[in-house]
Amino acid sequence: MAKTKVEAELDQPDEQLDRAIEELRGVLHEEEHRPDAAFRAAAGANSNVIMNIPVDVQIILGSTEMAVSDLMALQKGSTVALNRRIGEPVDVVVNGRKIARGEITVLESDPSRFGIRLTEIIAGTKGA
Question: What's the sign of the alpha-carbon dihedral 62, 103, 119, 30?
């Protein structure tokens, strides 16, 4: 049986995820503006369920391509040159999708650790 246009579009995982995220944003935005206090309490409970869903967050410092022979020759102390320079923004990727860019920074609360200061939020993009 032939698929309808809507069914064919929903088979695309990125498009399906985009639509689900946009619908979720719309629902949460509508719930925030409703005056009914009981409804807000229920919406808050629903939002908490959503907010507790774990996601995979990666900070992409850079990448490189190398031959398998070069990869096999790596050992402790080897240096791998990446495609980015010091000071260039790093990518913030959530569940395989680039959502932001930022700069590496040292944490004020713990100078032995570093983090990312977001400098740009990427809206409506597809994949990393």
Answer: positive
Length of the chain: 128
For tokens 């503006």, the residue is 33
Cβ neighbour number for residue 91 with a 10 Å cutoff: 19
Could you tell me the pTM of the whole model? 0.54
Q: What is the architecture of the domain spanning 55-128?
A: Roll (2.30)
Q: What is the pLDDT of residues 79-94, one digit of tens each?
A: 999 999 988 999 999 9
Spell out a b/e string for 4-13, using b for 16 or more CB atoms within 10 Å of the CB, else e.
Answer: eeeeeeeeee
Between 121 and 14, residue with greater pLDDT? 121
DSSP 97-111: EEEEEEEEEE-SS-T
